[in-house]
Amino acid sequence: MRLDIHNSDIPLLCRACEARHKGICGALDPKQLQQLGRQTGRREVAAGTELVAAGVQTDGYANILSGIVKLSKLMADGRQQIVGLQFAPDFVGRPFAASSDVSAEAASTVRICTFPRSALEDMVRQSPGLEHRLHEQALRELDDAREWMMTLGQKSAAEKVATFLLLLSRHVDPLVEGYSDHLEIPLKRSDIADFLGLTVETVSRNLTQLRKAGVLTIQKNRLVTVNDFSLLETAAGL
């Protein structure tokens, strides 16, 4: 009965949130959710929309509710490198930092829950659990970066492409535990090549080889059905 009372105190917007329990807001109690909820807003942004500009002071943060965000660094000569991908329920932004050294851009249509920087930082001071969640995400991103360094440095081109598909299928739907066998590749082939350190032709050739081997089915170049995850894991060198 007490659980029902608490649930009724949770803002309706938060109760309907697909990402709340696994995201940072899962650390907040109903009263704190109400406090933060009064300053939040939801919006949908199109692919290609910049969410965070590198080196520019930010006045807000966001939780990803659905879709994929790509993190990029720009070199002095204009070359760009995709250094990471974010999925629901990841947190976009760097708390207590004036700016970020990477830009964040919607790689697909993305739904986000936004809140002012001051609101989150006030909430962090009130809630050790929220600070702990943010710390956990930072460590998880560090682990992911180290894992991806190994992928880029040691794996073959075929293994890189298969690993990329496993990464997408594991994160494309926050409500699914494990892998999703149906996914839409949100990145252009040139972005995939950039992320994997390969050429566009090499990415396309290895996707075709996986399709011909029956590991996956590809429709319209973007819609992928994974037919056999054990074979895909083997192809990824796992």
Spell out the blueprint of helices and strands:
Elements (H helix, E strand, L loop, with lengths): L1 H8 L2 H4 L14 H8 L3 E5 L4 E3 L7 E7 L1 E7 L5 E8 L3 E2 L10 E4 L3 E7 H10 L1 H27 L2 H15 L10 E3 L4 H8 L3 H13 L3 E4 L3 E4 L2 H7 L3
Antiparallel strand pairs: 1-8, 2-7, 3-6, 3-8, 4-5, 4-7, 9-11, 10-11
Helix pairs in contact: 4-5, 6-8, 6-9, 7-8
Can you tell me about this structure?
With 238 residues, this protein is of the alpha+beta class. The protein has two domains: 2-148, Sandwich (Jelly Rolls), CATH 2.60.120.10; 155-235, Winged helix-like DNA-binding domain superfamily/Winged helix DNA-binding domain (Arc Repressor Mutant, subunit A), CATH 1.10.10.10. The chain contains nine helices and eleven strands. It has helices at residues 2-9, 12-15, 30-37, 117-126, 128-154, 157-171, 189-196, 200-212, 229-235; strands at 41-45, 50-52, 60-66, 68-74, 80-87, 91-92, 103-106, 110-116, 182-184, 216-219, 223-226. The strands form three sheets. The chain has a four-stranded antiparallel sheet with strand order 1-8-3-6. Strands 2-7-4-5 form a four-stranded antiparallel sheet, covered by helices on one side. β10 (216-219) and β11 (223-226) form a beta hairpin. It comes from Sulfitobacter brevis. InterPro entries: cNMP-bd_dom, cNMP-bd_dom_sf, Env_Response_Regulators, HTH_CRP, RmlC-like_jellyroll, WH-like_DNA-bd_sf, WH_DNA-bd_sf. This is CRP/FNR family transcriptional regulator, anaerobic regulatory protein. Residues 155-230 form the HTH crp-type domain. It holds the Pfam family HTH_Crp_2.
